[in-house]
Amino acid sequence: MDRYAHRIGTKQLKVEGKNGVPLSNQQVDICQKKHKFLFGCSEFTSIMYANNEIKDSEKEFYEERYNKFTNLFNYVTLPFYWANFEPIKGQPKTAKFKNAAKLWESKGLVIKGHPLCWHTLAPTWLLELNNADIIKEQLNRIYRDVTDFAGLIDMWDVINEVVIMPIFDKYDNGITRICNELGAVKLVSEVFKAAKESNPNAFLLINDFNTSEEYARAIEILLEADVPIDAIGIQSHMHQGYWGIEKTEKVLERFSRFKLPIHFTENTLVSGHIMPPEIEDLNDYQIPEWPTTQEGEERQAREAVMHYKTLFAHPLVESITWWDFADGAWLRAPSGFLTKENRVKPVYNEIYNLVKNEWWLNKQSFTTDENGFINLKGYFGEYELTYKGNNVTFELNNQDQKITLNV
Q1: Residue ranges per domain, the chain?
Q2: Cβ proximity of 311 and 275 under 8 Å
Q3: CB-based burial label for 399 (10 Å; 0-12, 13-18, 19+)
Q4: What pTM does this model have?
Q5: Would you state the pLDDT for residue 400?
C-alpha cells in the first residue's frame, strides 16, 4: 500500500443523529461507492444500442456486456470521429450521440469525447473547401459540439496525434492541410481556445501515440504559448508486446516534468499472437482473423496487472483507459477484456480484483467511540456510511481531515 500512499486519505468522522447528538458506541457500516481515479474503457457499440439500432434478439447480449462494463469501470470514451459524426456537412449526429452519453450518465460514469480535431477520419467534404474555410469549419465544429454536450460531456481529447499531423502523407485530408498552413502550435492553440471558450469548465487533453521527446518538446512549446492543456494524453497500444516497467517509467519520467495530470488514454495488450516488430504503423497490419488463445490470455492478464500497478503508483497519473472492451474492435485485435462472444477473459478478473478489491474499501463495520468518532483510511473517492438503514455519502480526499455526518 505504501507505493500508493498518494492515493490514500485518512479522515476522522464524527457521526451524529439528525438531532445533532453524537452517536456514542454505535456500529456503522462504511463502503466505497466510487473511485476518484478514472478507470475507463472505450465503448463505441453503445451508439447503436442507445438508438435502438440493434435487433431485439441482441439486446440481452449488449445489456450483459454493459453490466460487466459498469461493474468495473467508472469512465467511458465515446467516438466523436468527425467523418462518422458529420458525414454530411451540416448534419451532425448530435441527437444519437446524446442518447449514448445519457445512457452512460444514467449509470454514473464520467464521459469523454474523442477527438475534436484529428487528421484521420476527417470528413471528405473538407477537401472541397479552401484552407481558410477548412479552418473555419474545424473551429465551428468544436464550438458547436463542445457547447451542445456541455454538462453531459465535460472532458475532451481536443487534438489527436499532432506530432505526425503536419507530415501525415498516407492520404490527403483537410486537417493536415491546415496544420501545414498554420503550423502545429497555431492549430493546437486555436482548437484549445475554441474548446475552452465553448465550455470554460471542460477538462481538455492533448493526446498522442508518440511518446518521444518530440511530443514532450511540442507540449513544452504549447504551454509556453499559454495553451490551456489540462492533461497530457498518452497512448500505449502494445500490439507488438508489453512495454515493460522500465519503458513505462521512462515515459512517465519524460512527461512528469510538466507537473500536469497524465492520462493513459488508449491502452492495449493482445491475447493472441504478437504483431510482428517490423510493422511501423499498426494500421498496416490487416489480417482476416486474429484469434485469442489460452496462452495469450494468461500473458495479457499478467502484463495488464503490471501495467496498471505501474501507472497507479505514479502520482501524476489520473486515468487509465483500455481500448477496447471486447475483442476485434480495432484492427480485429484480440485486445479486449471480453471475447466477441462476451466471455470474460482473465484480464477482466485480474483488473477487477485490483480496482474493486485491492484498491477498494468493501463494506466494513466500525464502532464509534463515546463521542461519536471513528477513523477511516481508504482510497480517494466517494463513500457511504449506513446506520440503522439511514445512508449518508461523503468524499474521502486529502482535504478536511475531520468531517461531521448526520444520519
Answers
A1: 2-32+361-406, 38-358
A2: no
A3: exposed
A4: 0.97
A5: 74
CA dihedral over 313, 314, 315, 321, signed as positive or negative: negative
CATH of segment(s) 2-32+361-406: 2.60.40.10
Question: What per-residue confidence (pLDDT) applies to 1?
Answer: 52
Neighbour tally for 41: CB within 10 Å: 22
Distance CA 48, CA 53 (A): 5
Q: Which three cell numbers stand for residue 69?
A: 462494463
Q: Which CATH class is domain 38-358?
A: alpha beta
Nearest to 78 by CA among 38, 46, 119, 117: 46
Mean pLDDT of the 129-135 span: 98
Q: What's at 186, amino acid-wise? A: K
Cα-based distances in Å from 107 to 101, 102, 148, 352: 10, 9, 21, 18
DSSP letters spanning 72-134: H-SEEEEE--HHHH-SSTT---HHHHHHHHHHHHHTT-EEEEE-SB-STT--GGGGGS-HHHH
Q: What is the pLDDT at residue 401?
A: 81
Q: Calculate the CA dihedral of residues 172, 175, 181, 187 and round it to 10 degrees.
A: -160
